[in-house]
Please model this.
Amino acid sequence: MSNSNTGHIEKTSTYFTIFILLLVFLFASVAVAYLDLGEALGLLMNLGIAGIKATLVVLFFMHGRHNKRLLWVIGGLLLALVLFLSLTYNDYLFRDMLYSP
Amino acid sequence: MADSLVQAHSMGDGAPHDHHFGSFTQQYEAAQMGMWVFLLTEVFFFSVMLLSYAVYRLYFPLSFAAASHHLSVPLGTLNTVILLTSSFTVAMALHSIQLGKSKACFNYLAVTIFFACCFLVVKFIEYRFDYLEHLVPFFKSYDFEKPETLAKFPEYFVGGTRIFFMLYFLMTIVHAIHIIVGIIIIACVASRTRRGRYNNVVHTGVELAAIYWHFVDVVWIFLFPILYLMDSHVHI
Model:
């Protein structure tokens, strides 16, 4: 154990691997964007790859994987965010159905 | 996990701390907590813009596809590469100071600032291109909904492209402001590093600046596919 106040020191190679992975995912998402996968799958690939990249950054670059309490807080936030976004979007999605004859 | 953290922290507890904190560990954890709470509020701030994008895309799918085709995917990709690289260098800056190498830390912070400036330059080139193409909805020169295009998709095009470009400029300008703030923060931290204010025990400033910068990167990771890539496969 080191005497750093962050408690954990990653290996340089870990940072480098994650960096390369992020670039690979970036070019994958650009390539996939030009394929016609249909609305739902295309959307899923687009946002899914972005989600994976964000997770890699939070877990490795931001040292999230060494701070489990913090991950619980982030998880709670994401749950609140999903509820907030999906319920609001849901309202817009089905509003026409209510008012059309 | 908690035990190992406590052990690690207690080793830094001889470090100086402000008088209203009981120990250096407490001060460090309070600072880190403060930064994370701030970032969580930022997540909600950006998510509101993403939600309005989602709602208007639902109403104007073809307008949004047509409008997003006018953004440059190569420039957007280049900017993403630049930001990911800067995220890597700022992570390496923190890594260096954790090992007590303040000179290397300063160099990595300087490189990070360089990449951040590159991002702004590329963004400026894009904005200039948008201006020359009359795509800026705040100006009278805005000229996207040409009559021949309108005749093709009459009901979809009413106002839709204007809303797309409004959201595009709103989101990217707010993000660019975060980049500028990040440059200022990293410059302050770099200057303190150079003056020897941080070492392998005390480097809260470097860590918080790094966390903030990674967050700015994460925001762009979502903005890029949503604004540039979402409708690349649609032919209009």
User: Anything to note?
Assistant: Chain A touches chain B through 54 residues (CB under 8 Å). Helices of chain A lie at 12-33, 39-61, 68-99.
